[in-house]
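SEQUENCE-TO-STRUCTURE ENTRY
===========================

Subject: a protein chain together with a token-level encoding of how that chain folds.

Sequence line: the amino acid chain in single-letter code, read from start to end.

Question of interest: how does this chain fold, as expressed in backbone structure tokens?
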Amino acid sequence: MGRAGLGHGEKAGRKRPGRPLCDNLAVITGFNTDVKFRGLVYHVQTEDKGKVNPLIETLIYKGGEILASRRLPYAELIRDTDSEAVIGRLMEEQHKAMILEVKRGKFAPPEEPRSEDLSLDEIVLAYLVARAARLA
């Protein structure tokens, strides 16, 4: 998964070229991915807030609403000479982890009851039979 510029209008699988998020040149560009799950599109956005605010932030959107966020401070890493590579790997790992959460249904609305679900009468009958068996 490569780095891509930020924006909410991207299509799944398409990436824009990276660009700084602000005038702070110490900022690493972010990742954007649209993820489909049960017919809904979720947008996963990860960005580096830069050395002034050393934080990796990932947000999950659905229809413009933020459903979840994950923030990882990395102040201790900016002292290293290869900190940009380390920060880039952390960003990618966090981004992929949040995509997996979407694909596993963590942010999906509850499913509609299915026709094969038991009716109230069937549930009550099963309860009564189990209770009578315990009392016998």
